[in-house]
Amino acid sequence: MKSVWILNHYAQEPGGPGGTRHYSLARSLAQHDWSATVIAASTEHGTGRERLMPGESRRLDTLDGVPFLWVRTSSYSGNGADRVRNMLSYTRSVLKAEHTRQLERPDAIVGSSVHPFAAWAGLRLARRYGVPFVFEVRDLWPQTLVDLGRLSERHPVTLGLRVLEHHLYKHAAQIVVLLPRASEYIEPLGIAAEKIVWVPNGIELDIFPSPQPKQAADAFTVMYFGAHGTANGLDNVLRAIGLVQASNAERLINLRIIGDGPLKPSLIQMARQMDLRNVSFENPVPKKQIAAVAADADAFIFNLIDAPVFKYGISSNKLFDFMACARPVIFACNADNNPVQTAGGGVTVPAGNPQALARAMMDLSRLSQTQQQKMGLANRKHVEENYGFDRLGAKFAGALEAALRGKV
């Protein structure tokens, strides 16, 4: 069996809140003659929880058969200088030879660009061991930061990141992208199309058992699971539910917002200022508990701001989770791809339009139970057929094999 190291700064172990892409891919890769070790930061992203004991610089755990190497990183909160230091401390820690000495020698190394420094560390390690480097592009750095307004096009950091991203693209044996149209961004940089493989996020169907129909109730419950960040645009959702509350709709509509993120305190304050009586903010739940909590939902909201970077498409863990729960989804997003529309499993409205989002919530609440169930089951069928990790693991293994062959 061949060995691959996957460098993902923010990788999450099973049972924790947040995405578990590489845990799930590692389990599937084992069926394709690949043993994967995930190398992640000791500081849990989003919560700040420290996984290592005082005095530990690293620890190797095996979780449901998947090795996780936790390396010591600095703590941080928010998106400022502390977070940059945390990124750099992960990069330095991964490159310390004593931290990876206990691992099986790799046949390939994957660097995942939750930030580009982690991917650069993957390239350095690949050169150290004389093995192929596979660049996994989760976000288009620095284009995402530019499109979200966090960096200007001519900022020195932007220019430096553009040099780094081109270096990573050029020296990768294979490039795995999560966004369906990312190749339209990468190929104009002089990168061969044959190096690019689309492997989106997916769903662990075994933690989403066959869904049960929602029982009719007086109130209609809409849920959102996930991050509370700039790109999520949850202020738009609050404005929409405010319009619903003011409309005196014939059926009570409740909104449950579950998760965490840097904007959560300001969103709670906004809801108070708007006197929103039908909104609750709840703590994140582990991945394996989502299905149980989601059983109380009548529908989900998937909401993003209108940003140019979404023209390359999206690959959202939470969207696939929503669809796997077999409930209708309101897709409030201008992304190029729309799995909900493809499935016939909900309603699509423009990003940043609270009036349209409010109407969508009220229109869904008026549908019969049979109509709602039909949409939900269409969503479930779509993710089962297209986004199961058994299928995605086979594609990822194919990219690793191509990297070994030196295919470009």
UniProtKB/TrEMBL annotation:
CDD domains, per the entry? GT4_WbuB-like
Q: Which SUPFAM superfamilies match?
A: UDP-Glycosyltransferase/glycogen phosphorylase (SSF53756)
Q: Which Pfam families match?
A: Glyco_trans_1_4 (PF13692), Glyco_trans_4_4 (PF13579)
Q: Which residues form the Glycosyltransferase subfamily 4-like N-terminal domain?
A: 19-202
Entry's InterPro entries? Glyco_trans_4-like_N, Glycosyltransferase_grp1
Q: What is this protein called?
A: Glycosyltransferase WbuB
Q: Which organism is it from?
A: Bradyrhizobium canariense
